[in-house]
Amino acid sequence: MELLTRLTTRTFFTTLAITIVLTTALAYAGTGPSGAPDPTFGAGGLATAELADVGKSGGDNFGNDAVVDARGRILVAGGRSKPGSRNPSDFAVVAFDRTGRRDPTWGKNGAVIERFPRRGSMPWMPAVANSIATAPDGRVYVAGRVDFASDRDISKGYEIEGDDGGELNINRFHFVVHAYSEHGRAIKSFGDDGKLLIKAPTDWSGLDAPAELLDIGVAPDGSLYVLYEDNEWKYRLVHLDRRGHRVRGFGGSGVVRLNLPKGAGTDELTGARVFPDVNGAVVTYTTTSYKKKAGRALWGAQRFDRYGRRDRGYGTNGAFSKTWPLVGKLRGSDLAVESVLDASGRIVFAGTNAEESESRTIRRGAVIRVLTNGRLDRSFGNAGIFSPVNHDGTPKYVESITSGSDGRYVLAAARCIPDPDEESPCTSEWSTMQIDSDGKPLLSWGANGEAPISGDFGGIKAMLSAKRRVYIAFGRVYSANERNPRFGVTALFE
User: Fold this and answer.
1) CA distances from 237 to 256, 303, 334, 465 (A)
2) 113-131 core/surface letters (b: 16 or more CB in 10 A; e: else)
3) In the chain, what's the furthest Cα-to-Cα distance?
4) Are strands 270-277 and 255-257 parallel, antiparallel or unpaired?
């Protein structure tokens, strides 16, 4: 009897242990309900990080871009600010492992922080990391904008890319690119000890210069493309080799300018991205134009070959464009857009136009797909356009998109809910949804095709897909019990 009891007890605990291991393994393998949070990631599917010496002093943590590297880590690039400063003070890159913990093999305690030289009474230069990308060999590039006060500030540790001997104006923004190993250490062979500065190519010297680092992308050979807006509202694409030197065969001097189609308007580009490949790079963007107060949006893409020439075999004379009438006839329309490259090399745009007045807000989202030859894929959705709607038939607006497995796409979308107690005409109720490769919604995602995104967060900055997971990187994550925002990433089963 005693032997039987021991055997029964041993069998019970053995079975329990196997069940726990199998349950954990199945969850890690991505077999949970589609659209549900992954409980093995962070706390209930949400991982956050607050950098040292900020949390108790009223500072800020925020993310601007994110990427999944070859090791499965989620790297979030953004910034950290000191109390009382209106501008972010340093670059910051936080690494989360597959369980949502800070990865100790990246930088110091899972974070890399870059401080910049002093500017007068300020502790260091206002800086922001806008974009992050990984190379095939594991290196990580982070790019952003810094307000340098003087040539002496710039000379502290930066190689000046394309330096022609001219002076650098003070009190204006320039662009910096930092290169790191997979462990977050500076790659000394890139630029000057891993740092490169790209000069803003105009004589603008005002503090409100519109210069902006838009995106970076890495080609299969490890070379780097940097897309930015200069101080005269012009858009340029720079091609750099692995050492940070311009590829002179690209455009003759390593840089080309984007020539927008006639009638595209002069408003700031929205959601501009660069997607390099073995033959060159595709640049995507959205802009708006107005005629007699009637607005329209233009979704566009331009393809450049490895020499910086427009690829005439792509779209029409090297460019794709799709116009979309804006809501109403007021100039208050705003267009949010994101683009992603799927596994078949097609560009997928997801965006929203919106018009707000004293009495209403109308937001309508749409998704389109562009074939590798630069033509609209009319087999996608309804004659080339998928327009998400709520269950009651009202339109959704779309914030972001990622290309998942099996040719499917996952969207972050929202409906507009009137809120008479708020100054804004509506508040957002966020959810994710999945569509198949034909542009049709899948009801197997979440509950009846939707999965809510809960929590208090400030904007969606990136959506990523890897190993049957969907990761959403937020601009900021807030907590009722904490005063300061944090870096934040949520993980969903795909």
Assistant:
1) 5, 11, 25, 27
2) bbebbebeeeebbbbbbbb
3) 93
4) unpaired
For the record, the structure tokens of 247 come out as 């590829």
CB contact at 8 A, 461 and 488 = no
DSSP E strands, 212-279:
212-218, 224-229, 235-240, 255-257, 270-277
- Tokens 């858009």 correspond to what residue? 235
Phi, psi of 407 (to 5 degrees): 75, 10
Q: What is the 3-state secondary structure (H, E, C) of 428-450?
A: EEEEEEEECCCCCECCCCCECCE
Cα–Cα distance between 27 and 193 in angstroms, integer? 42
Q: What is the pLDDT of residues 149-182, one digit of tens each?
A: 544 444 444 554 544 444 444 445 678 899 999 9
- CA separation for the pair 86, 71 (Å, rounded): 36
CA-based torsion, 17, 18, 19, 21: positive or negative: positive
Contact present, 101 and 94 (Cβ < 8 Å): no
Q: Among 201, 227, 211, which residue's Cα sits nearest to residue 281?
A: 227
Strand 397-403 vs strand 409-418: parallel, antiparallel, or unpaired? antiparallel
The CA distance from 217 to 240, in Å, is: 10
- Does 269 or 4 have the greater pLDDT score? 269
- Nearest CA to 72 out of 487, 474, 406, 466 is that of 466
| 224 CB-side CA count, 13 A | 28
Within 10 angstroms of residue 95's Cβ, the number of other Cβ atoms is 26
N-to-C CA span, the chain:
49
* Structure-block tokens of residue 360: 């209403």
The residues with which 108 forms a beta bridge, in sequence order, are 111
Give the pLDDT confidence of 279-318 residue by residue, as tens digits: 999 999 887 655 544 556 788 999 999 999 999 999 999 9
Which of 63, 126, 79, 102 shows the shortest CA–CA distance to 463? Answer: 63
C-beta separation of 37 from 43 below 8 A: no
461: helix, strand or coil? strand
Residues 6 or more apart from 116 whose CB is under 8 A from it?
Answer: 89, 90, 124, 125, 127, 146, 148, 153
* Residue that the structure tokens 């991205």 belong to: 273
Nearest Cα to Cα of residue 400 among 276, 281, 270, 301: 270
Pairing of strands 159-161, 195-198: parallel
Element (H, E) at 484: strand 482-493
**Predicted TM-score of the model (pTM):** 0.84
Reference 218, options 192, 244, 236; nearest CA is 244
Percent of the chain, pLDDT > 90?
44
Q: Is the dihedral of CA 166, 171, 172, 174 positive or negative?
A: positive
Confidence class for position 91, pLDDT limits 50, 70, 90: confident
Q: How many residues does the chain have?
A: 494
